[in-house]
């Protein structure tokens, strides 16, 4: 007899779980309502739900995400897949955090909605159906963290939000033929992260600001005295004004300094255009090569994980 797939739906709140109360939009327990309206036959899926938090996604913290990962990890042997519903303001960051945590180990689909359930063009039901269908299809073919939304299924590390209001706001940054550095997985990797996720104070205390660089930018190192690392959001191909390079080098001698491009599409800089450019910047003490292709927000989250791994290894 074919096993009935068992999927856990975890709700983080957001637009997909809003309701109107006393004339105001408020978060509700949203997972059950989505299961009730899905067009995926319930006889084909065994559903479980977990209303994890009720928040706008902009209010989600690193502690919330670490606890989410700990929950998923603790239930990884009980379920064939996970669907995480999130607010869309930071859906990219939620999904990338899950990618860094689990990579290809588990079958995790993230979805959300650009319109609330009381709107005539509510898209949460369609997006949830796509997430459920994707979760089912990935059980045998492959696993990993994906975003299913706006008719697209996108790898979590490649998703970008290109509009604050359009229903079809989410798109892949890269075509499948763009090969970025692969990320390997290991038992040690998960052991480190499991112990790290249980250490909520670490995530409470981590301080990694993103500093935007543009014409006429200056740098106030005093504001970074308590930082554990920082991400510099650069124009173009990781460009830096030479005037602030000496200050950044002083900073890089104390904490990790990652250079990220503020451009949505930022593949590796080919040597045929700027020979030796990335190597030159890394020789100055800046981190680029392991972060190429990531947005400043993704780079910040990856740096959180890199600091976590390094701290755990030292222990």
What does it look like?
- By secondary structure, the chain is an alpha/beta fold.
- The protein has 2 domains: 6-172, Rossmann fold, CATH 3.40.50.1170; 206-314, Rossmann fold (3-Layer(aba) Sandwich).
- It is 32% helix and 21% strand.
- The protein contains 9 helices and 13 strands.
- The protein has a 6-stranded mixed sheet with strand order 4-1-5-6-7-8, sandwiched between helices. A 3-stranded parallel sheet has the order 11-12-13.
- Strand 6, helix 4 (124-141) and strand 7 form a beta-alpha-beta unit.
- Helix 5 crosses helix 9.
- Residues 177-182 have low confidence and may be disordered.
A few lines on this structure:
The chain is 32% helix and 21% strand. By secondary structure, the chain is an alpha/beta fold.
What is the topological layout?
Elements (H helix, E strand, L loop, with lengths): L5 E8 L4 E4 L2 E4 L3 H7 L8 E10 L6 H13 L6 E5 L5 H12 L4 E5 L12 H18 L2 E6 L2 E4 L3 E3 L8 E3 L14 H11 L2 H6 L4 E3 L17 E5 L10 H8 L4 E5 L15 H7 L12 H19 L1
Parallel strand pairs: 1-4, 1-5, 5-6, 6-7, 11-12, 12-13
Antiparallel strand pairs: 2-3, 7-8, 9-10
């Amino acid at each position: 007899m074919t096993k009935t797939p068992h999927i856990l739906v975890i709700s983080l709140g957001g637009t997909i779980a809003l309701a109107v109360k006393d004339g105001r939009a408020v978060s509700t327990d949203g997972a059950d309502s989505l299961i009730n309206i899905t067009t995926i036959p319930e006889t084909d899926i065994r559903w479980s739900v977990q209303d994890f938090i009720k928040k706008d996604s902009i209010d989600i913290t690193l502690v919330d995400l670490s606890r989410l990962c700990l929950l998923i990890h603790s239930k990884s042997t009980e379920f064939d897949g996970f669907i995480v519903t999130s607010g869309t303001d930071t859906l990219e960051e939620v999904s990338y955090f899950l990618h860094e945590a689990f990579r290809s180990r588990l079958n995790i689909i993230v979805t959300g909605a650009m319109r609330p359930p009381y709107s005539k063009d509510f898209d949460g039901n369609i997006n949830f159906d796509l997430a459920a269908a994707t979760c089912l299809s990935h059980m045998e073919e492959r696993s990993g963290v994906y975003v299913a939304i706006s008719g697209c299924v996108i790898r979590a590390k490649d998703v970008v939000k290109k509009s604050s209001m359009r229903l079809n706001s989410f798109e892949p940054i890269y075509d499948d033929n763009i090969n970025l550095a692969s990320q390997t997985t290991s038992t040690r990797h998960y052991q480190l992260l499991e112990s790290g996720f249980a250490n909520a104070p670490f995530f409470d205390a981590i301080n990694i600001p993103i500093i935007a660089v543009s014409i006429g930018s200056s740098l106030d190192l005093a504001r970074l005295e308590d930082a554990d690392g920082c991400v510099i959001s650069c124009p173009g191909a990781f460009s830096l004004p030479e005037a602030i390079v000496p200050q950044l080098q002083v900073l890089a001698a104390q904490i990790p300094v990652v250079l990220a491009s503020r451009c949505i599409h930022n593949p590796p800089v080919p040597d045929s255009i700027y020979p030796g450019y990335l190597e030159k910047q890394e020789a100055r003490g800046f981190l680029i090569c392991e972060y190429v292709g990531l947005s400043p927000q993704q780079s910040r989250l990856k740096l959180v994980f890199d600091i976590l791994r390094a701290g755990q290894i030292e222990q």
